Amino acid sequence: MTKQPTTEEKLKVFKALADPIRLEVIHYLNGLDQAVSCGEIGQAMHISKTSGSYHFKILQEAGLITVQKVAREKYVKLDRSTFDEYLTHFWQNV
Amino acid sequence: MTKQPTTEEKLKVFKALADPIRLEVIHYLNGLDQAVSCGEIGQAMHISKTSGSYHFKILQEAGLITVQKVAREKYVKLDRSTFDEYLTHFWQNV
DNA sequence: TAAATAGTTCAAAAACATTTGAACTATTTT
DNA sequence: AAAATAGTTCAAATGTTTTTGAACTATTTA
């Protein structure tokens, strides 16, 4: 009884997954399983702040991460429900 | 006990899924659940032969479809084991 | 054997995604 | 209050993907 994703939404998710840096970020977040600051992830991935900002935005707009601002930092974690909806339950929406 | 996909392989699959025409092809093939000729799919998607050829190659190289040549036609169907490995079982490989 | 059909290949053009560095905002520390 | 830190925004440059049309191969039909 939960709404079917549109093609636009699916595209956003698959495009977000179709990049090596973003797959690495997902892997990193999955390993830690807690909110981590953008800066920490950026350092671990060896990318610039600007590039990090760009990639986090894409992951966020796809719904793959959630973001929480704490003082001057942003903490990020995986939104597993989105992975489940688009990947694990892929055949439910195809 | 089955080999972990490499980052390259995952990227190929997610890139293949990150396109509206290819998602439509997958949807079409899923509905029919049988091998269909490239020409028939191309007509149903309203794309040129050249564009069809390009997209089928990408889906094939990602392992998302299998292709069988019969006389001068090519028949295509979904390879569900690849969808299962990369999507349904996403968390096993992340 | 000539014409038609199914699909491929190639290179150029067009469209789209990513990176870069500088300038910026907001917050925290000294 | 000044300096430092976390992150964003912008436009330009670079890189990658997709589309296009013409020429091609292989097979089938007339």
From TrEMBL, chains A, B:
Query: What Pfam families does the entry give?
Result: HTH_20
The answer on whether this UniProt entry bears the keyword Transcription regulation reads yes
Mind telling me which SUPFAM superfamilies this protein's record contains?
Winged helix' DNA-binding domain (SSF46785)
Record keywords, A-Z: DNA-binding, Transcription, Transcription regulation
Please name the InterPro entries in this protein's record: ArsR-like_HTH, HTH_ArsR_DNA-bd_dom, HTH_MetalResp_TranReg, WH-like_DNA-bd_sf, WH_DNA-bd_sf
* Matches recorded under PROSITE patterns: HTH_ARSR_2
- The HTH arsR-type domain sits at 2-94
Sections of the chain in a coiled coil: none
The protein in question is named ArsR/SmtB family transcription factor
Q: Which organism is it from?
A: Lactiplantibacillus nangangensis
